[in-house]
Amino acid sequence: MDKSTEDRNSLERLKSTILSIDWEITDECLSDLVSESDRLLPFFRDNPYARALLRILKTLGHYMRKHKAQSHQEAIKRIMSAFASLEKIVADEPLPESQQKQIATMEVLAFKNLKSKIERQHAPQPMMEPVAFGAETPSCLDPATFQQSLDAVEKRLNP
């Protein structure tokens, strides 16, 4: 069995969990999402983009389990999108690294956007500095920047 087939097979339990969440959001399903994401992280240690998506799934699972019905309505959409992107990255036909970066970058940016919306819901925001469009986007392609960004987001969402 080649590596990409092993990667796809390893996602089957996570896929089952995602489908369960799509059907009904329960504490058990969210706990499974967190534990399955955690279980898969070491398996993808050589793919920072798959790991970034798994960390997003894990963080969103923690967030939704903690906040339940008060969770932001986009959280479930982000879970579904992050999983779909993960499946693309580890598909039977491996994507070039540049496409993997692009897919993961879009998910990280969407995740950061959701995080900002959640933070605005829970606390009054001070005046924000204007940001030029495209000012920092290319740095998101760097795996080290992915790691730092996700660490900061996880820390804020899971105090």
Write down how many β-strands occur, each being a DSSP E stretch of 2 or more residues: 0
Q: H/E element string?
A: HHHHHHH
| Assembly level | single chain
Q: What is the 3D shape? A: globular
Low-confidence stretches: none
Portion of residues within helices: 55-70%
Task: Describe the structure concisely.
By secondary structure, the chain is mostly helical. It has seven helices and no strands.
Describe the protein in words.
It is a single chain. This protein is mainly alpha-helical and 159 residues long. Helix 2 packs antiparallel against helix 3 and helix 6 runs parallel beside helix 7. The protein is globular and about 40 Å long. The N and C termini lie far apart (41 Å). The relative contact order is 0.13. The model has no long low-confidence stretch (mean pLDDT 85).
List the helices and strands and how they pair.
Elements: H1 3-10, H2 12-23, H3 27-40, H4 48-67, H5 75-89, H6 97-122, H7 143-157
Q: Which descriptors apply to this entry?
A:
mainly alpha; 159 residues
